[in-house]
Amino acid sequence: MGNRGMEDLIPLINKLQDAFSSIGQTCNLDLPQIAVVGGQSAGKSSVLENFVGRDFLPRGSGIVTRRPLILQLVNSKAEYAEFLHCKGRKFVDFDEVRQEIEAETDRLTGSNKGISPIPINLRVYSPNVLNLTLIDLPGMTKVPVGDQPQDIEHQIRDMLLQFITKESCLILAVTPANTDLANSDALKIAKEVDPQGLRTIGVITKLDLMDEGTDARDILENKLLPLRRGYIGVVNRSQKDIDGKKDIRAALAAERKFFLSHPAYRHIAERMGTPHLQKSLNQQLTNHIRDTLPGLRSKLQSQLLSLEKEVEEYKNFRPDDPARKTKALLQMVQQFGVDFEKCIEGSGDQVDTSNLSGGAKINRIFHERFPFELVKMEFDEKELRKEISYAIKNIHGVRTGLFTPDLAFEAIVKKQIIKLKDPCLKCVDLVVVELVTLIRKCTEKLTSYPRLREETERIVTTYIRERDSKTKDQVLLLIDIELSYINTNHEDFIGFANAQQRTAANATKKRAMPNQVIRRGWLTINISIMKGGSKEYWFVLTAESLSWYKDEEEKEKKYMLPLDNLKLRDLEKSFMSSKHVFAIFNTEQRNVYKDLRQIELACDTQEDVDSWKASFLRAGVYPEKDQTENEDAINSSDTVSMDPQLERQVETIRNLVDSYISIVNKSIRDLMPKTIMHLMINNAKDFIHSELLAYLYSAGDQGSLMEESAEQAQRRDEMLRMYHALKEALVLIGDISTTTISTPVPPPVDDTWIAKEPRYNIILDKFTQHLHKILH
């Protein structure tokens, strides 16, 4: 072998495999191993039993190996077996080992011949074995048997590929000698993942069952169907020998006698048989591990570094230490407060790049969603004029009024102000929902202590619900304050004298900044397939028009749509599409784009739709009103034609109401975010920093509050085991000299034969070439 340290290599890999398997993860390391592949009844299990010298694997017809068996052979003075899932139990009777394999297989796969990729780990200690680790995989099959799924062939193939695709895995391709080697399933699948043949070792079984007068000499001499690592022949016990409980030692002696006495194999007998195969695999696996050591070492070191920080906290960890619990409670509450504040105020660390959350979402509620809700409840023109008309007439009573009554203005204004209550309360509700979501997100770091997390969520959420009630009271108070005094001396109020000119002022106001860009972004125009199909364009919205371009360079303009007489319309999301849709249409029933009466615009999320609607509002494009209401208003029997004087009075009050309500809206839009921030958000931050700890102490016993979850305790143990396994592995690797001389991989050979040419063609070609050499 070269040096003593090399003998520790296979046990080292075994320890790593056990450590990672028990933790339930592979630590992202592809550990060197040997996978045994072959067709059903090729003799794979018999080869493994011959290694151990005991009958311990399940037998029967059809598919027997239904889960990967990681078999770790360890040279030892005593002889016994251990399963990773039965820690501490030593199996001395190997019949019990077989029963345990069958029971553990059925536990996961049931008894219907189904398969599972989750391995069974078995370690066998024996003086008769060399250190070796093999994985016995299910035999390849073509036809499902009994209750097996119809795709059993593909399931087994996928499972084999999971193991043998890895560069760190040697492939032991087992093929019976009494079948055509050119059609070997094992060699075919090995060729797929290892075309250069660097990792494939051939094993020929059932040499004693070949037809009389035939032999596999050319194959075993690596002449007929060559592999870089060559072939080794073995003779297993027959089914009659197995049924008759023939001793494996006697079988190995018979195998030795077979090779020494057979005229075709006598000259290569020293390189044939189970003992030589075991010795060769031990050497090849050891060399293979040595070759992969540098890469393995660097992976182990990077894993160790990533674990170091967390393990530092656990090294001197005592779960029941009261001082530790107190310290942990203080740190957790403090961290929760910091995280909550950072989410509200914004921060540079751990920024969510996929969705709006926390403060950003609340900001959107304040400045996009709330203004949109205000505009949505904007009064219906016909209904408003009708109300003004009735108000004027009712104030004048039996007399015909000569002057426009200001009482009518006040009555209408107050009615419109009362309508503000719903969107204001909805705004508060939206902020509360976001804060509760934020609290859940911030308590994720308390998962280690389920009771603490639960109590923290409960206390802070209850506090926010209390603040919710007080904030709504304050918001309603703001509305009541607006109702209490109609300030017609406000500097922005147009007054009676200017009311008549209001319409003209509106027309010029909209185009005060025609070139101002309000928004840019991607939108999809939904058009039927007959008219070209849906396409995505780059849209630019200004105060005067909506334009769309081929891309964001804005060089190739596709269309420009003026915003005059446009309105927004909500549309139902199509079951054929995942996108959210809204529409733009012309109130005068004109085509908006080409021959379309409305353009359907699609966004990826509802949030994007709401944001675009808010941008259209800023450009003066409002949502349509409920059509049924409009029709009811038009068809109402109370609607009467107005005389010219009443018409002028209605117009005057209409303009006054419009002016005053815009002042109130402006004031409410400004005060709502301030009220919510002061009474709810800032109060919640102060509560978390100054009072949450006291509430937690009063909520119950600190010991039970800081009781860590079973998952956390398990995670800590797994982390420490992983850490120590990695450290031990690095120490062992460090002790091994990488200058050890090992047998190099043989040079490449002609391997074009696999699954391409029938066997007789190859033999004929070889014979022709040989004859040609003799003649010349």
UniProtKB/TrEMBL annotation:
Residues 516-621 form the PH domain. One of its GO terms (cellular component) is uropod. It comes from the Eukaryota. It is found in: Cell projection, Phagocytic cup; Cell projection, Podosome; Cell projection, Uropodium; Cytoplasm, Cytoskeleton, Microtubule organizing center, Centrosome, Centriole. Residues 28-294 form the Dynamin-type G domain. Its EC number is 3.6.5.5. It is a peripheral membrane protein. Coiled coil: none annotated. Belongs to the TRAFAC class dynamin-like GTPase superfamily. Dynamin/Fzo/YdjA family. It catalyses: GTP + H2O = GDP + phosphate + H(+). SUPFAM superfamilies: P-loop containing nucleoside triphosphate hydrolases, PH domain-like. Keywords: Acetylation, Cell junction, Cell projection, Coated pit, Cytoplasm, Cytoplasmic vesicle, Cytoskeleton, Endocytosis, Endosome, GTP-binding, Hydrolase, Membrane, Microtubule, Motor protein, Nucleotide-binding, Phagocytosis, Phosphoprotein, Synapse, Synaptosome. GO terms for biological process: phagocytosis; receptor internalization; synaptic vesicle budding from presynaptic endocytic zone membrane. The keyword Cytoplasm applies. This is Dynamin-2. The keyword Lyase does not apply. GO terms for molecular function: GTP binding; GTPase activity; microtubule binding. Residues 650-741 form the GED domain.
